[in-house]
Predict the structure.
Amino acid sequence: MKFKLKFKGREYNIEVSETEQGVKIKVNKKEFIFEEEPKEKSLSSVKSFPKKDFSPKTITAPISGVISEIFVKQGDRIKKGEKLILLSAMKMENEIVSDYDGKIKEILVKKNQKVKSNDTLLIIK
Amino acid sequence: MRILKYKIIDSTNSLAKKIAKENEEKPWTIVLTEEQRAGYGRNKSSWYSPKGGLYFSIILPKGNIDDLQTLTILAAFIIARVLKENFNLEPLIKLPNDIYIGKKKVAGVLTETIVSSNVKSSIIGIGLNTNIKDFPKDLKNIACSLEIVLNKKVNNEKILKQIVNGLKQQLKSRSKL
Protein backbone atom coordinates (compact mmCIF):
# COMPACT_ATOMS: atom_id res chain seq x y z
CA MET A 1 0.00 0.00 0.00
CA LYS A 2 1.46 3.32 -1.09
CA PHE A 3 0.38 6.79 -0.15
CA LYS A 4 1.66 10.28 0.28
CA LEU A 5 1.60 12.21 3.51
CA LYS A 6 2.11 15.89 3.96
CA PHE A 7 3.37 16.86 7.36
CA LYS A 8 4.50 20.36 8.33
CA GLY A 9 4.89 21.30 4.66
CA ARG A 10 7.03 18.35 3.79
CA GLU A 11 5.89 15.48 1.58
CA TYR A 12 6.58 11.87 2.47
CA ASN A 13 6.17 8.84 0.20
CA ILE A 14 5.02 6.02 2.37
CA GLU A 15 4.87 2.38 1.43
CA VAL A 16 3.46 -0.23 3.83
CA SER A 17 3.95 -3.94 3.14
CA GLU A 18 3.96 -7.21 5.03
CA THR A 19 7.18 -9.19 5.09
CA GLU A 20 8.36 -12.31 6.90
CA GLN A 21 10.06 -10.15 9.51
CA GLY A 22 6.92 -8.16 10.18
CA VAL A 23 5.30 -5.02 8.83
CA LYS A 24 7.64 -2.93 6.66
CA ILE A 25 7.04 0.79 6.41
CA LYS A 26 9.14 2.67 3.90
CA VAL A 27 9.26 6.43 4.40
CA ASN A 28 10.88 8.01 1.35
CA LYS A 29 14.02 5.85 1.14
CA LYS A 30 14.21 4.77 4.77
CA GLU A 31 12.78 1.40 5.81
CA PHE A 32 11.35 0.52 9.20
CA ILE A 33 10.38 -3.04 10.10
CA PHE A 34 7.95 -3.54 12.92
CA GLU A 35 8.07 -7.06 14.26
CA GLU A 36 5.01 -8.72 15.71
CA GLU A 37 6.71 -9.34 19.04
CA PRO A 38 6.05 -5.98 20.71
CA LYS A 39 2.35 -6.43 20.03
CA GLU A 40 2.40 -9.90 21.62
CA LYS A 41 4.27 -8.57 24.62
CA SER A 42 1.71 -5.90 25.24
CA LEU A 43 -1.05 -8.47 24.93
CA SER A 44 0.60 -10.84 27.34
CA SER A 45 1.02 -8.10 29.87
CA VAL A 46 -2.69 -7.44 29.65
CA LYS A 47 -3.33 -11.14 30.14
CA SER A 48 -1.28 -11.18 33.32
CA PHE A 49 -3.67 -8.83 35.12
CA PRO A 50 -5.55 -10.76 37.80
CA LYS A 51 -8.94 -11.76 36.51
CA LYS A 52 -12.01 -11.69 38.70
CA ASP A 53 -14.14 -14.71 38.14
CA PHE A 54 -17.80 -13.79 38.28
CA SER A 55 -19.10 -17.11 37.02
CA PRO A 56 -21.58 -18.85 39.36
CA LYS A 57 -20.15 -21.57 41.61
CA THR A 58 -22.10 -24.57 42.70
CA ILE A 59 -21.81 -26.18 46.11
CA THR A 60 -22.51 -29.90 45.95
CA ALA A 61 -23.16 -32.59 48.54
CA PRO A 62 -19.95 -34.45 49.40
CA ILE A 63 -21.96 -37.53 50.42
CA SER A 64 -25.56 -38.65 50.63
CA GLY A 65 -27.53 -37.48 53.64
CA VAL A 66 -30.21 -35.18 54.99
CA ILE A 67 -30.03 -31.39 55.12
CA SER A 68 -30.33 -30.72 58.82
CA GLU A 69 -29.59 -27.02 58.82
CA ILE A 70 -29.17 -24.17 56.33
CA PHE A 71 -27.13 -21.33 57.77
CA VAL A 72 -27.57 -18.83 54.90
CA LYS A 73 -30.38 -17.37 52.83
CA GLN A 74 -30.66 -16.12 49.28
CA GLY A 75 -28.89 -12.82 48.78
CA ASP A 76 -26.53 -13.24 51.75
CA ARG A 77 -22.96 -12.16 51.21
CA ILE A 78 -20.61 -14.88 52.34
CA LYS A 79 -16.91 -15.29 52.83
CA LYS A 80 -14.58 -18.18 52.13
CA GLY A 81 -14.73 -20.65 55.01
CA GLU A 82 -18.21 -19.56 56.14
CA LYS A 83 -20.70 -22.26 57.20
CA LEU A 84 -23.39 -22.86 54.58
CA ILE A 85 -25.18 -26.11 55.27
CA LEU A 86 -25.16 -28.95 57.80
CA LEU A 87 -25.55 -32.28 56.07
CA SER A 88 -26.22 -35.20 58.37
CA ALA A 89 -25.22 -38.54 57.05
CA MET A 90 -25.99 -41.79 58.79
CA LYS A 91 -22.64 -41.90 60.49
CA MET A 92 -21.46 -38.33 60.69
CA GLU A 93 -22.36 -34.67 60.50
CA ASN A 94 -20.81 -32.60 57.76
CA GLU A 95 -20.49 -28.87 58.00
CA ILE A 96 -20.28 -27.63 54.42
CA VAL A 97 -18.29 -24.41 54.16
CA SER A 98 -17.76 -22.09 51.21
CA ASP A 99 -14.66 -22.20 49.07
CA TYR A 100 -15.45 -18.74 47.73
CA ASP A 101 -16.31 -15.18 48.67
CA GLY A 102 -19.58 -14.14 47.04
CA LYS A 103 -23.32 -13.86 47.27
CA ILE A 104 -25.87 -16.66 47.62
CA LYS A 105 -27.65 -16.69 44.27
CA GLU A 106 -29.93 -19.65 44.88
CA ILE A 107 -30.57 -22.32 47.50
CA LEU A 108 -31.79 -25.51 45.89
CA VAL A 109 -32.53 -27.56 49.00
CA LYS A 110 -34.75 -27.36 52.04
CA LYS A 111 -34.30 -28.44 55.65
CA ASN A 112 -34.86 -32.18 56.16
CA GLN A 113 -34.51 -32.86 52.43
CA LYS A 114 -32.65 -36.00 51.43
CA VAL A 115 -29.79 -35.45 49.00
CA LYS A 116 -27.43 -37.69 47.11
CA SER A 117 -23.71 -37.31 46.70
CA ASN A 118 -22.90 -34.60 44.11
CA ASP A 119 -26.39 -33.07 44.18
CA THR A 120 -26.20 -29.30 43.84
CA LEU A 121 -27.13 -27.63 47.13
CA LEU A 122 -26.69 -23.97 46.37
CA ILE A 123 -25.26 -21.53 43.87
CA ILE A 124 -22.88 -18.70 44.69
CA LYS A 125 -22.10 -15.83 42.35
CA MET B 1 -0.52 -38.46 73.07
CA ARG B 2 -1.19 -34.69 73.06
CA ILE B 3 -4.11 -34.02 75.37
CA LEU B 4 -5.62 -30.56 75.90
CA LYS B 5 -7.29 -30.83 79.30
CA TYR B 6 -10.11 -28.63 80.54
CA LYS B 7 -12.20 -28.48 83.71
CA ILE B 8 -15.39 -27.37 82.00
CA ILE B 9 -16.21 -26.33 78.43
CA ASP B 10 -19.36 -26.18 76.31
CA SER B 11 -18.50 -29.16 74.15
CA THR B 12 -15.34 -31.03 73.25
CA ASN B 13 -16.54 -31.41 69.65
CA SER B 14 -17.21 -27.68 69.28
CA LEU B 15 -13.83 -26.78 70.72
CA ALA B 16 -11.95 -29.42 68.71
CA LYS B 17 -13.65 -28.18 65.52
CA LYS B 18 -12.68 -24.61 66.35
CA ILE B 19 -9.08 -25.61 67.10
CA ALA B 20 -8.84 -27.68 63.92
CA LYS B 21 -10.31 -24.83 61.86
CA GLU B 22 -8.11 -22.09 63.24
CA ASN B 23 -4.80 -23.89 63.61
CA GLU B 24 -3.11 -26.68 61.77
CA GLU B 25 -3.27 -28.74 64.95
CA LYS B 26 -1.45 -32.06 64.82
CA PRO B 27 -3.70 -35.04 64.09
CA TRP B 28 -4.59 -37.14 67.11
CA THR B 29 -4.63 -34.12 69.41
CA ILE B 30 -7.28 -34.78 72.05
CA VAL B 31 -9.61 -32.27 73.66
CA LEU B 32 -10.60 -33.64 77.07
CA THR B 33 -12.88 -32.08 79.63
CA GLU B 34 -14.19 -33.06 83.04
CA GLU B 35 -17.58 -31.52 82.35
CA GLN B 36 -19.55 -30.18 79.37
CA ARG B 37 -22.09 -27.37 79.57
CA ALA B 38 -23.60 -28.17 76.19
CA GLY B 39 -22.49 -31.63 75.14
CA TYR B 40 -24.33 -32.85 72.06
CA GLY B 41 -24.88 -35.91 69.93
CA ARG B 42 -26.31 -36.45 66.49
CA ASN B 43 -28.81 -33.87 65.28
CA LYS B 44 -27.72 -31.64 68.16
CA SER B 45 -29.45 -33.83 70.74
CA SER B 46 -27.98 -32.97 74.12
CA TRP B 47 -25.55 -35.23 75.95
CA TYR B 48 -25.75 -35.17 79.74
CA SER B 49 -22.18 -34.41 80.80
CA PRO B 50 -21.70 -33.98 84.55
CA LYS B 51 -18.36 -34.30 86.31
CA GLY B 52 -17.20 -37.92 86.51
CA GLY B 53 -17.94 -38.91 82.90
CA LEU B 54 -15.40 -39.22 80.13
CA TYR B 55 -15.84 -36.61 77.38
CA PHE B 56 -13.26 -36.15 74.66
CA SER B 57 -12.79 -35.38 70.98
CA ILE B 58 -9.95 -36.37 68.71
CA ILE B 59 -8.72 -34.19 65.85
CA LEU B 60 -8.28 -36.74 63.08
CA PRO B 61 -5.76 -36.85 60.28
CA LYS B 62 -7.19 -35.42 57.07
CA GLY B 63 -8.77 -38.08 54.98
CA ASN B 64 -11.21 -38.92 52.28
CA ILE B 65 -14.83 -38.34 53.31
CA ASP B 66 -15.86 -41.90 52.44
CA ASP B 67 -13.08 -43.33 54.61
CA LEU B 68 -14.19 -41.13 57.49
CA GLN B 69 -17.69 -42.59 57.29
CA THR B 70 -16.55 -45.89 58.73
CA LEU B 71 -14.82 -44.25 61.66
CA THR B 72 -17.94 -43.81 63.77
CA ILE B 73 -18.77 -47.50 63.64
CA LEU B 74 -15.13 -48.40 64.18
CA ALA B 75 -15.02 -46.19 67.28
CA ALA B 76 -18.24 -47.75 68.61
CA PHE B 77 -16.70 -51.24 68.22
CA ILE B 78 -13.52 -50.17 69.99
CA ILE B 79 -15.45 -48.68 72.92
CA ALA B 80 -17.50 -51.87 73.21
CA ARG B 81 -14.32 -53.96 73.15
CA VAL B 82 -12.67 -51.82 75.84
CA LEU B 83 -15.74 -52.20 78.07
CA LYS B 84 -15.87 -55.94 77.51
CA GLU B 85 -12.16 -56.55 78.05
CA ASN B 86 -11.79 -54.32 81.10
CA PHE B 87 -15.04 -54.97 82.91
CA ASN B 88 -16.36 -58.20 81.46
CA LEU B 89 -19.49 -56.44 80.27
CA GLU B 90 -21.58 -57.38 77.23
CA PRO B 91 -22.12 -54.04 75.52
CA LEU B 92 -24.50 -53.74 72.61
CA ILE B 93 -23.79 -51.47 69.68
CA LYS B 94 -26.80 -49.68 68.31
CA LEU B 95 -25.62 -48.70 64.87
CA PRO B 96 -24.20 -46.42 63.92
CA ASN B 97 -23.06 -44.62 67.01
CA ASP B 98 -24.46 -45.66 70.39
CA ILE B 99 -23.33 -48.25 72.92
CA TYR B 100 -25.79 -49.80 75.35
CA ILE B 101 -25.51 -51.96 78.41
CA GLY B 102 -28.75 -53.83 78.71
CA LYS B 103 -31.37 -51.40 77.52
CA LYS B 104 -29.60 -48.26 78.64
CA LYS B 105 -27.19 -46.05 76.73
CA VAL B 106 -23.70 -45.83 78.18
CA ALA B 107 -21.73 -44.14 75.36
CA GLY B 108 -22.17 -42.21 72.15
CA VAL B 109 -19.95 -41.27 69.23
CA LEU B 110 -20.27 -38.26 66.95
CA THR B 111 -18.01 -37.72 63.96
CA GLU B 112 -18.06 -34.28 62.40
CA THR B 113 -16.30 -32.99 59.32
CA ILE B 114 -15.79 -29.56 57.87
CA VAL B 115 -15.88 -29.93 54.13
CA SER B 116 -15.85 -27.78 50.99
CA SER B 117 -14.33 -29.14 47.80
CA ASN B 118 -12.31 -31.40 50.07
CA VAL B 119 -12.26 -32.35 53.73
CA LYS B 120 -10.85 -29.43 55.71
CA SER B 121 -10.88 -31.16 59.07
CA SER B 122 -12.60 -33.95 60.89
CA ILE B 123 -13.06 -34.82 64.51
CA ILE B 124 -14.57 -37.68 66.43
CA GLY B 125 -16.22 -37.05 69.77
CA ILE B 126 -16.90 -39.66 72.42
CA GLY B 127 -19.05 -39.39 75.49
CA LEU B 128 -18.82 -42.29 77.92
CA ASN B 129 -20.82 -42.42 81.13
CA THR B 130 -18.15 -43.66 83.49
CA ASN B 131 -18.23 -42.32 87.05
CA ILE B 132 -21.75 -40.93 87.14
CA LYS B 133 -23.69 -41.89 90.26
CA ASP B 134 -27.13 -40.85 89.16
CA PHE B 135 -29.12 -39.47 86.21
CA PRO B 136 -31.93 -36.92 86.11
CA LYS B 137 -35.48 -38.30 86.06
CA ASP B 138 -35.93 -38.03 82.30
CA LEU B 139 -32.76 -40.03 81.65
CA LYS B 140 -32.95 -42.62 84.44
CA ASN B 141 -34.70 -45.18 82.29
CA ILE B 142 -32.63 -44.71 79.15
CA ALA B 143 -29.09 -44.00 80.37
CA CYS B 144 -26.64 -45.81 82.60
CA SER B 145 -23.04 -45.48 83.71
CA LEU B 146 -20.20 -47.85 84.44
CA GLU B 147 -20.28 -46.80 88.09
CA ILE B 148 -23.95 -47.77 88.38
CA VAL B 149 -23.47 -51.08 86.53
CA LEU B 150 -20.20 -52.11 88.21
CA ASN B 151 -20.85 -50.44 91.53
CA LYS B 152 -17.34 -49.00 91.54
CA LYS B 153 -15.38 -46.12 90.05
CA VAL B 154 -13.28 -46.66 86.93
CA ASN B 155 -10.11 -45.02 85.66
CA ASN B 156 -11.09 -42.48 83.00
CA GLU B 157 -7.56 -41.86 81.78
CA LYS B 158 -6.86 -45.54 81.26
CA ILE B 159 -10.08 -45.96 79.27
CA LEU B 160 -9.31 -42.87 77.19
CA LYS B 161 -5.87 -44.20 76.26
CA GLN B 162 -7.22 -47.63 75.41
CA ILE B 163 -9.87 -46.16 73.10
CA VAL B 164 -7.46 -43.77 71.35
CA ASN B 165 -4.80 -46.45 70.93
CA GLY B 166 -7.42 -48.87 69.66
CA LEU B 167 -8.54 -46.36 67.04
CA LYS B 168 -4.99 -45.58 66.00
CA GLN B 169 -4.19 -49.25 65.67
CA GLN B 170 -7.25 -49.92 63.55
CA LEU B 171 -6.43 -47.03 61.27
CA LYS B 172 -2.76 -47.87 60.87
CA SER B 173 -3.38 -50.08 57.89
CA ARG B 174 -5.34 -47.37 56.12
CA SER B 175 -2.86 -45.15 54.38
CA LYS B 176 -5.37 -42.36 53.70
CA LEU B 177 -5.97 -41.85 57.39
Q: What stands out?
A: The CA atoms of residues 58 and 123 of chain A lie 5 Å apart. Residues 37-47 of chain A form the longest helix (11 residues). The interface with chain B takes residues 59, 62-63, 68, 81, 88-99 of chain A (CB under 8 Å). Chain A has a mean pLDDT of 81.
